[in-house]
Amino acid sequence: MSFELPKIAYEYNALEPFVDTQTMNIHHTKHHQAYVNNINNYISSDKGTALKGKSILEVVQSATEAPVRNNGGGHYNHSLFWTWMTSVGNTNTTPTGALKTRIEEDFGSLDQMKQEFNAAASSRFGSGWAWLGVKADGKLAITSTPNQDNPLMPGVDQPLIPILGLDVWEHAYYLKYQNRRPEYISAFWNVANWDKVVEYYDDFASKGKPLEGKWNDMRRSFFVCTDSYSGVMRPRFDNCVGSCIVRLNELESCTVIIREVNDRRPCN
User: Fold this and answer.
1) CA nearest 146: which of 128, 169, 164?
2) Phi, psi of 5 (to 5 degrees)
3) Domains in the chain, please, with CATH?
4) Is the CB of residue 107 less than 8 Å from the CB of residue 141?
5) Where is the Manganese/iron superoxide dismutase C-terminal domain (predicted)?
Protein backbone atom coordinates (compact mmCIF):
# COMPACT_ATOMS: atom_id res chain seq x y z
CA MET A 1 0.00 0.00 0.00
CA SER A 2 1.40 3.38 -1.00
CA PHE A 3 1.30 6.48 1.16
CA GLU A 4 -0.83 9.37 -0.09
CA LEU A 5 -0.77 13.12 0.33
CA PRO A 6 -3.38 13.96 2.99
CA LYS A 7 -5.95 16.64 2.36
CA ILE A 8 -5.80 19.77 4.49
CA ALA A 9 -8.96 20.62 6.45
CA TYR A 10 -8.86 24.31 5.49
CA GLU A 11 -8.22 26.38 2.39
CA TYR A 12 -4.72 27.50 1.50
CA ASN A 13 -5.68 31.11 2.25
CA ALA A 14 -7.17 30.31 5.66
CA LEU A 15 -4.00 31.19 7.58
CA GLU A 16 -3.55 34.66 6.07
CA PRO A 17 -1.93 37.00 6.92
CA PHE A 18 0.32 34.87 9.11
CA VAL A 19 1.06 32.10 6.60
CA ASP A 20 0.54 33.20 3.02
CA THR A 21 -1.56 31.39 0.43
CA GLN A 22 1.24 30.77 -2.06
CA THR A 23 3.49 29.24 0.58
CA MET A 24 0.72 26.92 1.76
CA ASN A 25 -0.03 25.77 -1.78
CA ILE A 26 3.59 25.11 -2.71
CA HIS A 27 4.44 23.62 0.67
CA HIS A 28 1.59 21.11 0.48
CA THR A 29 1.34 20.24 -3.21
CA LYS A 30 5.05 20.37 -4.07
CA HIS A 31 7.23 19.79 -1.01
CA HIS A 32 4.99 17.40 0.92
CA GLN A 33 4.02 15.58 -2.27
CA ALA A 34 7.71 15.08 -3.05
CA TYR A 35 8.28 13.41 0.33
CA VAL A 36 5.33 11.10 -0.32
CA ASN A 37 6.61 10.20 -3.79
CA ASN A 38 10.15 9.64 -2.57
CA ILE A 39 9.27 7.39 0.36
CA ASN A 40 6.95 5.35 -1.86
CA ASN A 41 9.70 4.96 -4.45
CA TYR A 42 12.21 3.93 -1.79
CA ILE A 43 9.88 1.30 -0.34
CA SER A 44 9.22 -0.04 -3.85
CA SER A 45 12.95 -0.45 -4.45
CA ASP A 46 15.14 -3.34 -3.34
CA LYS A 47 16.50 -1.19 -0.50
CA GLY A 48 13.03 -0.70 0.98
CA THR A 49 11.91 -4.31 1.16
CA ALA A 50 11.90 -4.34 4.97
CA LEU A 51 9.50 -1.38 5.05
CA LYS A 52 6.83 -2.89 2.83
CA GLY A 53 3.48 -3.03 4.62
CA LYS A 54 4.59 -0.81 7.51
CA SER A 55 2.60 2.20 8.68
CA ILE A 56 4.22 5.62 8.39
CA LEU A 57 4.66 5.58 12.18
CA GLU A 58 6.53 2.27 11.98
CA VAL A 59 8.66 3.67 9.18
CA VAL A 60 9.55 6.72 11.26
CA GLN A 61 10.25 4.79 14.46
CA SER A 62 12.70 2.48 12.70
CA ALA A 63 14.29 5.07 10.40
CA THR A 64 18.08 4.85 10.34
CA GLU A 65 18.87 5.36 6.64
CA ALA A 66 19.00 8.97 5.42
CA PRO A 67 16.44 8.53 2.60
CA VAL A 68 13.93 7.12 5.09
CA ARG A 69 14.56 9.77 7.72
CA ASN A 70 14.31 12.54 5.13
CA ASN A 71 11.27 11.32 3.19
CA GLY A 72 9.41 9.15 5.67
CA GLY A 73 10.02 11.85 8.26
CA GLY A 74 9.00 14.52 5.79
CA HIS A 75 5.67 12.82 5.15
CA TYR A 76 4.90 12.13 8.82
CA ASN A 77 6.03 15.55 10.05
CA HIS A 78 4.04 17.49 7.47
CA SER A 79 0.91 15.38 7.92
CA LEU A 80 0.97 16.45 11.55
CA PHE A 81 2.02 20.00 10.78
CA TRP A 82 -1.13 20.79 8.79
CA THR A 83 -3.27 19.73 11.75
CA TRP A 84 -1.32 21.97 14.14
CA MET A 85 -2.59 25.08 12.33
CA THR A 86 -6.06 26.50 11.80
CA SER A 87 -7.67 29.80 10.92
CA VAL A 88 -7.86 32.53 13.56
CA GLY A 89 -10.92 32.17 15.77
CA ASN A 90 -11.35 28.47 15.02
CA THR A 91 -9.70 27.15 18.18
CA ASN A 92 -8.90 28.00 21.77
CA THR A 93 -6.01 30.44 21.90
CA THR A 94 -4.39 28.65 24.84
CA PRO A 95 -4.15 25.04 26.01
CA THR A 96 -6.79 23.72 28.39
CA GLY A 97 -7.26 20.93 30.89
CA ALA A 98 -4.49 18.51 31.75
CA LEU A 99 -2.12 19.95 29.16
CA LYS A 100 -2.45 23.45 30.59
CA THR A 101 -1.59 22.06 34.03
CA ARG A 102 1.33 20.06 32.67
CA ILE A 103 2.78 23.10 30.87
CA GLU A 104 2.57 25.19 34.02
CA GLU A 105 4.24 22.45 36.07
CA ASP A 106 7.06 21.80 33.62
CA PHE A 107 7.73 25.33 32.30
CA GLY A 108 6.20 27.67 34.87
CA SER A 109 3.79 29.29 32.41
CA LEU A 110 2.58 29.16 28.82
CA ASP A 111 4.62 32.26 28.01
CA GLN A 112 7.78 30.61 29.29
CA MET A 113 7.06 27.50 27.24
CA LYS A 114 6.61 29.65 24.13
CA GLN A 115 9.88 31.45 24.80
CA GLU A 116 11.76 28.16 25.03
CA PHE A 117 10.02 26.81 21.93
CA ASN A 118 10.81 30.00 19.99
CA ALA A 119 14.44 29.77 21.05
CA ALA A 120 14.69 26.17 19.87
CA ALA A 121 13.11 27.08 16.53
CA SER A 122 15.27 30.18 16.05
CA SER A 123 18.54 28.51 16.97
CA ARG A 124 18.11 25.40 14.81
CA PHE A 125 20.94 25.87 12.30
CA GLY A 126 19.92 25.35 8.70
CA SER A 127 16.76 23.35 8.11
CA GLY A 128 14.76 21.46 10.69
CA TRP A 129 11.92 21.45 13.18
CA ALA A 130 11.14 22.60 16.72
CA TRP A 131 9.07 20.29 18.91
CA LEU A 132 7.02 20.19 22.08
CA GLY A 133 6.48 16.64 23.27
CA VAL A 134 6.17 14.14 26.07
CA LYS A 135 9.20 12.34 27.50
CA ALA A 136 9.21 8.76 28.76
CA ASP A 137 8.68 10.04 32.32
CA GLY A 138 5.50 11.87 31.28
CA LYS A 139 6.98 15.36 31.53
CA LEU A 140 6.99 17.84 28.66
CA ALA A 141 10.15 18.95 26.92
CA ILE A 142 11.19 21.07 23.95
CA THR A 143 13.77 20.07 21.39
CA SER A 144 14.73 20.67 17.78
CA THR A 145 15.83 18.25 15.08
CA PRO A 146 17.73 18.69 11.82
CA ASN A 147 16.27 18.13 8.37
CA GLN A 148 13.13 15.94 8.58
CA ASP A 149 14.15 14.05 11.71
CA ASN A 150 11.35 13.40 14.19
CA PRO A 151 11.79 12.93 17.96
CA LEU A 152 10.41 9.39 17.56
CA MET A 153 13.38 8.36 15.42
CA PRO A 154 16.39 6.40 16.68
CA GLY A 155 19.43 8.44 17.64
CA VAL A 156 17.81 11.81 18.32
CA ASP A 157 19.17 14.00 21.12
CA GLN A 158 15.86 14.15 23.01
CA PRO A 159 13.35 11.35 22.37
CA LEU A 160 9.76 12.62 22.62
CA ILE A 161 6.24 11.84 21.57
CA PRO A 162 5.55 15.10 19.70
CA ILE A 163 2.33 17.00 20.32
CA LEU A 164 3.32 20.23 18.55
CA GLY A 165 5.91 20.98 15.90
CA LEU A 166 7.01 23.88 13.73
CA ASP A 167 8.68 23.55 10.35
CA VAL A 168 11.63 25.95 10.14
CA TRP A 169 12.82 24.96 6.70
CA GLU A 170 13.08 28.06 4.54
CA HIS A 171 10.41 26.71 2.19
CA ALA A 172 7.92 27.09 5.07
CA TYR A 173 8.32 30.86 5.34
CA TYR A 174 10.74 32.44 2.85
CA LEU A 175 8.22 33.77 0.32
CA LYS A 176 6.65 35.97 3.00
CA TYR A 177 9.31 36.42 5.68
CA GLN A 178 12.56 36.04 3.70
CA ASN A 179 15.37 35.73 6.27
CA ARG A 180 13.18 36.85 9.19
CA ARG A 181 12.69 33.44 10.76
CA PRO A 182 11.92 34.81 14.27
CA GLU A 183 9.03 36.82 12.78
CA TYR A 184 7.62 33.66 11.19
CA ILE A 185 7.96 31.78 14.47
CA SER A 186 6.13 34.51 16.35
CA ALA A 187 3.36 34.59 13.73
CA PHE A 188 2.84 30.84 14.05
CA TRP A 189 1.22 31.23 17.47
CA ASN A 190 -1.64 33.17 15.86
CA VAL A 191 -2.71 30.07 13.92
CA ALA A 192 -1.63 27.35 16.36
CA ASN A 193 -4.44 24.82 16.76
CA TRP A 194 -4.44 24.36 20.53
CA ASP A 195 -7.55 22.19 20.42
CA LYS A 196 -5.62 19.69 18.30
CA VAL A 197 -2.55 19.87 20.55
CA VAL A 198 -4.74 19.17 23.58
CA GLU A 199 -6.36 16.25 21.76
CA TYR A 200 -3.00 14.75 20.83
CA TYR A 201 -1.81 15.10 24.42
CA ASP A 202 -4.95 13.75 26.09
CA ASP A 203 -5.67 10.88 23.71
CA PHE A 204 -2.19 9.77 22.76
CA ALA A 205 1.03 11.24 24.16
CA SER A 206 -0.03 11.40 27.83
CA LYS A 207 -0.73 7.66 27.56
CA GLY A 208 2.65 6.95 25.98
CA LYS A 209 1.16 6.44 22.50
CA PRO A 210 2.48 8.24 19.41
CA LEU A 211 0.12 9.24 16.63
CA GLU A 212 -0.45 6.51 14.08
CA GLY A 213 -0.71 8.85 11.13
CA LYS A 214 -4.11 7.90 9.69
CA TRP A 215 -5.49 11.27 8.67
CA ASN A 216 -8.99 11.48 7.24
CA ASP A 217 -11.36 14.23 6.21
CA MET A 218 -13.91 14.25 9.02
CA ARG A 219 -16.81 16.13 7.36
CA ARG A 220 -19.26 13.40 8.35
CA SER A 221 -21.42 12.22 11.20
CA PHE A 222 -19.93 10.35 14.11
CA PHE A 223 -21.00 8.21 17.03
CA VAL A 224 -20.44 8.84 20.71
CA CYS A 225 -20.46 5.40 22.25
CA THR A 226 -19.59 3.42 25.32
CA ASP A 227 -16.93 0.90 24.45
CA SER A 228 -18.23 -2.60 25.16
CA TYR A 229 -14.96 -3.65 26.69
CA SER A 230 -13.69 -0.66 28.63
CA GLY A 231 -16.91 1.25 29.29
CA VAL A 232 -15.14 4.47 28.33
CA MET A 233 -17.13 7.18 26.55
CA ARG A 234 -15.35 8.41 23.44
CA PRO A 235 -16.06 9.53 19.87
CA ARG A 236 -16.04 6.87 17.18
CA PHE A 237 -15.92 8.21 13.64
CA ASP A 238 -17.82 6.43 10.90
CA ASN A 239 -15.63 7.33 7.94
CA CYS A 240 -12.26 5.92 8.95
CA VAL A 241 -10.63 3.15 6.97
CA GLY A 242 -9.44 -0.38 7.54
CA SER A 243 -9.06 -1.39 11.17
CA CYS A 244 -10.37 2.00 12.30
CA ILE A 245 -13.94 1.15 11.29
CA VAL A 246 -16.07 0.50 14.37
CA ARG A 247 -19.27 -1.39 13.64
CA LEU A 248 -22.42 -0.84 15.66
CA ASN A 249 -22.60 -4.47 16.72
CA GLU A 250 -19.25 -4.10 18.46
CA LEU A 251 -20.52 -1.34 20.73
CA GLU A 252 -23.29 -0.83 23.23
CA SER A 253 -25.21 2.18 24.51
CA CYS A 254 -24.62 4.08 21.27
CA THR A 255 -26.18 7.45 20.59
CA VAL A 256 -25.90 8.69 17.03
CA ILE A 257 -25.06 12.37 16.83
CA ILE A 258 -25.20 13.97 13.39
CA ARG A 259 -22.74 16.80 13.27
CA GLU A 260 -20.65 18.48 10.63
CA VAL A 261 -17.03 18.30 11.71
CA ASN A 262 -14.53 20.41 9.80
CA ASP A 263 -11.61 18.58 11.27
CA ARG A 264 -8.94 16.01 10.58
CA ARG A 265 -7.65 13.59 13.15
CA PRO A 266 -6.18 10.12 13.44
CA CYS A 267 -8.71 7.35 13.83
CA ASN A 268 -9.19 6.22 17.43
Assistant:
1) 128
2) -70, 120
3) 21-83 (1.10.287.990), 97-207 (3.55.40.20), 215-266 (no CATH)
4) no
5) 95-198
